[in-house]
Amino acid sequence: MKTKERILLFTGIILILIAPTILTLPAFDEIWDFSGKGEIGSTIGGITSPIVGLLGVIMVFFTFKEQVKANDKLENQIKLNQYKSNFEILQSLFNDIKVETEKIEYDSNIIIDDTNSVSRGLNAIKEFAENISAEIKYPRPTLNNFIESMDYILTLHLLFIKTINNIDLDAEFKLFITTKYKSYYNSHLCYHIDKMLFYINENDIEDDFINLKRSLLDIKSLYSLL
Questions:
Q1: How many Å apart are CA 1 and CA 53, to the nearest integer?
Q2: What DSSP assignment string belongs to 31-89?
Q3: What percent of the chain has pLDDT over 70?
Q4: Separation CA 166–CA 189 (nearest Å)
Q5: CA distance readout (Å), 131 to 5, 50, 112
Q6: What's this model's pTM, rounded to 2 decimal places?
Q7: Can you tell me the distance from the alpha carbon of 173 to that of 169, in angstroms, rounded to the nearest whole number?
Q8: Residue 117 — φ and ψ, nearest 5°?
Q9: 146-160 residue pLDDT tens
Q10: Cα dist. 61→51, 52, 100, 128, 143 in Å?
């Protein structure tokens, strides 16, 4: 309870306590003489009842006011907790993207004569993008595992972008995670995705590459909405 509220409450209590004493003192003027107006108790009660009622109204008002503040504070805390939970979901998705990307392997030995031809992680995606034209022209069954892994990684990207576009998130949290993801995408994927799409569009492709093309186009489309 604030100082102003305490003063009002204290004043009301004082008025109630001193009213009977004041009203039963000898009157200085006839207008203040209550002796002929019935029983003094009824008179005092009739006079102090409005004060008591007013005090009750004041107390109800301040109680309601404090309850509204408490409810607002609770609502803000719930919303903040929800923001933090949603942020953690996005952070987890982003970490999944990086972890799964590091697992992917690409063997370019069929394309280039190199005994150390297996690349991993972002280098695998880079190497595949460099060799995609030849991979399309000379398809090989061993490439299926890479394309499946690549498609899974792209699905995680799509899930992340869809989630960040639809999830309820504080503006600062959203800006932070969006900036972080854009930096990763632009630094490690954007160029290679564009290159893959260019060669896929330039050649006749089979089912695996059709699915890959669809995922690449979906990412390009949704990324533009961030």
A1: 20
A2: GG--TTSS-HHHHHHHHHHHHHHHHHHHHHHHHHHHHHHHHHHHHHHHHHHHHHHHHHH
A3: 75
A4: 23
A5: 77, 91, 9
A6: 0.67
A7: 7
A8: -90, -5
A9: 999 999 999 999 999
A10: 15, 14, 58, 71, 74
pLDDT at 31: 55
Residues paired with 105 in a beta bridge: 120
- Residues 120-140 have pLDDT tens digits of 999 999 999 999 888 888 877
- Residue from 144, 216, 145 nearest 185 by CA: 216
Lookup: tokens for 111: 């394309």
Half-sphere exposure of 205 (CA within 13 A, CB side): 20
In 3D space, the residue among 132, 133, 136 whose CA is nearest the CA of residue 124 turns out to be 132
3-state secondary structure of 7: helix
